[in-house]
Specification:
2 domains; two-stranded parallel sheet; binds pyridoxal-5'-phosphate
């Protein structure tokens, strides 16, 4: 919601109206508002993007991306940028650079290689066919 601005009157009105009807709705149930959102997304996104994962946080988006990457490639190794922050869930935390966030919760997701942001040579070197790198 933050990307839509803070305290915009139209957002307050829409959220208030929705909260008065139905404040949350799991994916297993049909929801007219979710269906409208999917329809809108389909009209603004390129044709090849026709599946969506709606989520509640950045960390959940990272978890979804990790799962999609693993499903599509069959690989478990992940390359992440040094100094990056990816969230506090266990998978996302494994990628997060700052040890203060990570250290207390070891062990993390295996085979994470951290490379300097924008160092494409290091990123290419870290990508391989299997388990991936590991450590840093
Ligand atoms: C790049 C990036 N990924 C993930 C996150 C985690 O988002 P959230 O706190 O919504 O889980 C953040 C939060 O700052 C972020 O900047």
């Amino acid at each position: 919601m933050a990307l839509l601005g803070h305290s915009h009157p139209a957002i307050i009105e829409a959220v208030t109206a929705q909260a008065a009807q139905l404040i949350t709705c799991p994916e297993i149930f049909y929801n007219d508002q979710r269906a409208r959102l999917y329809e809108t997304l389909e009209t603004v996104l390129p044709d090849e993007i026709n599946r969506f994962f709606l989520c509640n946080s950045g960390a959940e988006a990272i978890e979804g991306a990790l799962k999609v990457a693993r499903l599509l490639t069959g690989r478990t190794g992940i390359v992440a940028a040094k100094r990056g922050f990816h969230g506090r869930t266990l998978g996302a935390l494994s990628l997060t650079w700052n040890k203060d966030y990570r250290e207390p919760f070891a062990p993390w997701q295996p085979a994470v290689t951290h490379v300097t942001f924008n160092d494409l040579g290091a990123a290419r070197a870290a990508i391989n066919e299997g388990y991936g790198g590991g450590g840093r």
